[in-house]
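hiii, so i know i said id send this last week but things got crazy w the move. better late than never?? heres the sequnce for the chain we talked about at the cafe, plus the structure i predicted for it. fair warning i was half asleep when i ran it
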Amino acid sequence: MLDFLHELNKEQYAAVSSDINKHMLVIAGAGTGKTKALVSRYAFLMENHFATDRIMAITFTKKAAEEMQQRISKISRQKLHYHNSWIANFHRIANKILRDNYKAANFDSDNFRLIDRNEQKTLLKNEILSNENLLDADLINFITICNESENERQKRLQNFYDNVINNFGNDNKENQKIQLVEYKKENKQENNKAEIIDIATQQITNISNISNISNSTDLEKLFLDVDKSTADAFALKQILEDINYFKELGIRADDYLLLANNQYVETTSQNKYTIEFLSDYANLIYQFNNCEINETNSEKLNKLTLELFFKGENKLNMQNIFNTQERMNCYKKFYTIYKAYENYCFQNDIVDFSESLLRCYELLRKNKLLLNKYQQQFKHILIDEFQDTNQLQYRWLALLCNNENYFFAVGDDDQ
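okay and structure toks below
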């Protein structure tokens, strides 16, 4: 028996020495030696005469990949050739494939520029937002309010009511603030901005005996009074996160616009919204998820797209504070920023981390000959921390899978 196999427990040994012509999913908790099993599996494959360029091992960080290489070299009797091994994180592997096939991936050369998150932020701020003047006050307010926590929201609402009293109340302002807060506790009607402002108008009129609060614009400014000292930086950070978020779902700027243009139908009687989409967008989503469109899964489509666009129920509720037209205006402003950023990167051969995997996925999906080449090359694909894969990473892996290669994945279903 190989020396490194002696160091495995019963469960690790069973996984590592399992049939090399079958897929294997190892599920175990934290600290149980999942990565040790994966490292040992790599060494086991090398002992079974698989060259390092035929094995892909994927981790989530550069540091983890380097540690994996060191651990494999330490336990294996076979020499690990670093120069042609494919032990790396998703982005590094995607980057290598793109550089090896730069013409097919529509780059001018294999020397395209790969940027990190800090460089991405600087580019977005200096080359896109400043030149085009795209980040205006309406979008900053929208982004800030839609992404604030419940505590931040309650604090801002309290500031709003305080400001209403300070601007429109009479001499007994502290008592008026208390009355308005008590009213709010008893009447939880804060579905949207218009209702909140209407409540404030009615109650301050009753409390202060003032009947001339008619300037809704002033009240709206008070409602949208976000912290200007942090709002600009927060909006920039959130735009960057949203661009990367949609890229990691395989949604380009033009795909996003399809969604934005068709995601709301207002039912005026209840002031609620339902989801409706063009068939083109429905097909886009289901093509990405390898599903077929039919009547029975229309509800799943609505749920999926809701999750994609709003990133959760709380964000949807926060966006409902704004009316349909306000939302649409901000969605289109975000699209303009996303599209300008996308075009700038395309024109200047710049690739961010999210783009590298998306571009690689698109390349392999559209180029069947190239896809077949890599399917044939990698007979074994090993994935560490499988539970952390996002949707694009999972689809990229699924694309590489065929009937002649095999996956060995380790993960923790509790994480």
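btw The longest strand covers residues 406-411. thought thatd interest u
miss u guys!!
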